[in-house]
Design a protein that fits this description.
The protein is mainly beta and about 280 residues long. It contains two helices and 42 strands. The strands form 14 sheets. The protein has a three-stranded antiparallel beta sheet, with no helix packed on it.
Length: about 280
């Protein structure tokens, strides 16, 4: 029985050394006290008729006592201070600080809700270094979304195609990119995070690719670099354009005035007049 008791004491001391970083001699001495008989009388714990002080086992759990009570406060373990709550190392939130085995938490810790990044027990805001580079943390979580006009994704400034919650945009260093860049479709010209469509820097672009042909952008048809005028085909249908837009109004065809609606001959009622192919019906 004595051999078993000594073996248990040695194992207990080793566990404490590994967990709390204190000398084996210190805890070997403390742990020997754990097996002294402790009794509970009228709200006070006694050892040899004196109020308990230090570490003792009560109902198979080790507690820290002071003046016979389970202690709450800071104690010194080696060169470090640990926070004890009701005789046990603090684990969780206490007074706005998150503790991990009596010490203010540092690094990624699960607080029972989710993982947060802590520094000195508080959810951290700032930059940290991880294996894949620097990350920006806000209130213990990877920064995400727009912060000070910069877009973050998983703690990093947004780059390439990312959905910002409203649409898919092409980012560079956290900003919607304008300029030439390469994506999965090859080299493209971007304007404010999307493929360029229209005239930019005196050049015509469609889906980010420079083009010399006709292009229809934002309701305007360009032909040979200029807003279209007259009859032009768009999406296999012929329309009448004026200054690039589908025209509504009268145009002269030979000696006949014809009414155009949205680029096509009026057919049906318009302004209480019935038209067929742009001509009022008599």
């Amino acid at each position: 029985m004595r051999v078993l008791k000594k073996s248990y004491l040695l194992l207990f001391s080793l566990v404490l050394v590994l967990n709390f970083g204190v000398s084996s001699n210190h805890f070997a001495e403390e742990s020997s006290n754990n097996y002294k008989e402790i009794v509970y009388i009228d709200g006070v714990f006694y050892v040899k008729e004196k109020p308990a002080n230090g570490w003792y086992i009560y109902e198979k759990i080790i507690y820290y006592f002071k003046d016979g009570k389970k202690f709450t406060g800071h104690i010194q373990i080696g060169k470090r201070y640990k926070y004890v709550v009701n005789g046990l190392y603090a684990k969780g939130y206490a007074n706005g600080i998150f503790y991990d085995y009596g010490s203010p938490a540092n690094g990624w810790k699960d607080d029972g809700i989710k993982e947060f990044y802590f520094k000195e027990g508080k959810k951290f805001t700032g930059t940290i270094k991880e294996d894949d580079g620097e990350k920006y943390i806000i209130n213990g979580e990877y920064a995400k979304g727009y912060i000070n006009d910069l877009f973050y994704s998983d703690g990093k400034l947004g780059n390439l195609w990312i959905d910002d919650g409203t649409a898919l945009y092409f980012f560079r260093d956290g900003k919607k990119f304008t300029g030439k860049a390469v994506d999965g479709n090859g080299k493209r010209y971007f304007v404010n995070g999307i493929y360029a469509n229209g005239v930019y820097e005196g050049k015509f672009f469609k889906d980010g690719v420079e083009t010399a042909g006709n292009i229809y952008v934002n309701g305007v048809l360009y032909v040979n670099g200029k807003p279209a005028n007259g009859w032009h085909e768009h999406e296999d249908i012929t329309f009448y354009f004026k200054e690039g837009k589908k025209f509504t109004g009268f145009i002269q065809i030979g000696k006949i005035n014809k009414y155009i609606v949205n680029g096509r001959y009026a057919y049906g009622y318009a302004n209480d007049i019935f038209y067929t192919y742009g001509v009022p019906v008599n």
